[in-house]
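Continuing the series of single-chain predictions for the mutant panel. This is the parent chain; the variants come on the following pages.
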Amino acid sequence: MSAVLKRLSRIVNPSTVTITKEQFFNDLLSQSRQRLVIDPEAVVSRQNNPYLQQALHKSQQFAQRALQQHIDPAALEIDNLLGSIGIPSNISGTRGYPTTHYVLEPGVYYKRQHKLQAGQARPTPESPGVIQEFIGFKDTPMMDWDVAGPYHADRNATIRHLGDVEENIQNYLKQNPESTLRLYQSPGGYRAFDLTTRQSPVQYNQSFELLNVDPDYQMISQQRPDKLKYEGPIALNDTERFNVRINPKIGRVDWVAQPIAELRGAKAIIDPTSIRRVMEYHDNPIKQNFLQGEAQAASIEKIKENLPTASEFLQKQVRSYLGL
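Parent structure:
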């Protein structure tokens, strides 16, 4: 009770000292020691594209404007007081680090978004959350399957195990014999990239249906903004794209995604741009930062656990792919 009274006193008699949102979040997140796996400035600087540079500067300016805003001490105290009893409040604008969108190259997007533990009202020094990183591909299709369990709602679990994913993919390859799908095990399910076709999420809709992906992923991929913002010919907030998380979720042991096989149709081909994008922005950052040591061992155990549900053909391919 005394702690509540002290907070009420500070609200009634707020401090005249203010700090910026940048100072607030730097202090809040300093203990997490999180390293981000994509540096958009480094990626853009390697390309001789003035429009990408303009888009990068636009995103950087947005983030800086948001972070340089000063926080009202009374508003922050109200937020903290309500948050301590589980009531979401964001009067001070400090519930999350500003979400920032970047364009890494034409057709490849990158987003940073602050995520908290499920059910948490606002960040605290004890539980500050993490900055989640997402890559979005405009026309390199990605699919997502969830299994039932603590991480997903029942409506998202369209498959039970690897055998179900294999059946979905083989049905797809029969109708699309030119296709190659790179398949991954994740802590909560599976993901795959179509390395052949170059389609937008809306164009890929029939394939989503055939592959029986997570319906929420299908819906979110196809969302379109009411209004696009352009920097030269590049759209900054074109949200219709295949989004994929490339760093761990908060609150679980998470090695993100372990590639396990490539399943190919009878006339399979691979698009060189698609495979380069997947390797550069997905596979390599995850492998270099998360698929190491105990995390990699955990991924292998998860894969071995699910292997018996697959056909002998796929089991052999997975073992060969991983050197098991």
